[in-house]
Amino acid sequence: MDNTIFPLIASTLRMAAPLIFTGIGAVFAERSGVVNIGLDGMMIMGAFFAVFGSKIDGPVTGILFAMLAGGVMATIHAFLSINLRADQIISGTAINLFATALASFLIGPIFKTGGQTDLVKGLSYDLPGFLEKVPILKDLNWFVIGAFILVFVANFVLFKTPLGLRIRAVGEHPSAADTLGINVYKMRYLCVILSGILAGLGGAALSIGLTPAYKDGMVAGRGFIALAAMIFGNWKPVGTMWACLLFAFGNAFQIQAQGFTMIRLPNELYSSIPYILTMLALAGFVGKTTAPRADGQPYVKGQR
Fold first, then answer.
1. Which residues contact 129 (CB under 8 A, 6 or more apart)?
2. Domain spans of the chain?
3. Helices vs. strands in the chain: H and E counts, helices first
4. Rounded to whole angstroms, how far apart are CA atoms 210 and 120?
5. CATH node for 5-122+134-285
6. Nearest to 165 by CA among 151, 152, 180
């Protein structure tokens, strides 16, 4: 168990953290009525700038840089989607393409390398002495702890506070919310920018939280997996968390499975496990989940 089960569980939790941060961000954006397909690009920006900030002044600065980078990209998406009423899918896709190219380009002038940055200082994980020998707990990191705290904070905010009621109102019936004096544009901006900040934090959890470096392709579609987890979780933080754990387990298992000696399969087949799980989950739950009624619909003030 010490050599198999505990490492698998710890690896699942570590790999779930980036998905949870990003998935909770997706919940806030879509609960307010804005589809954020650009989460993958925001994760890329977060992963890169977390490494850049850590290179400058340590991992805490890296986390702040990551959140800022994700927030800036989300602000662009919010402006295009809310003010200009651009197609939200196209806007998010453009952000993904731009972020991928920008991060790849910046590696050269900043790190003087190609395709991958230098290793930087990761976020340390110091536990009190009596906890250092606890199985699983000793193999986690602070991103994992923060991700699970975030789930319950987000659930409380969305379903137990007036702010959460306003967010859900603008995602369900924005014209009625507007009639009651709720600023629909302001609430949507708030939630989309928050989704970018959390996606940036998810990118930081992936780079300085797991391997303290950035390389091209390291996000590997995790922003889309987080979106799938949100749908699987029925646009709720706790449900999204369980879906992220399922997908992260698939990722952790495929890494461990590549070391199996009794059953030898192509590594590419093992690597596809998380994506197969994502497709199966979506195929099995489409029609069984309910999106906010105004999700993806631009709002024009005064429109009924």
1. none
2. 5-122+134-285
3. 12, 0
4. 12
5. 1.10.3470
6. 180
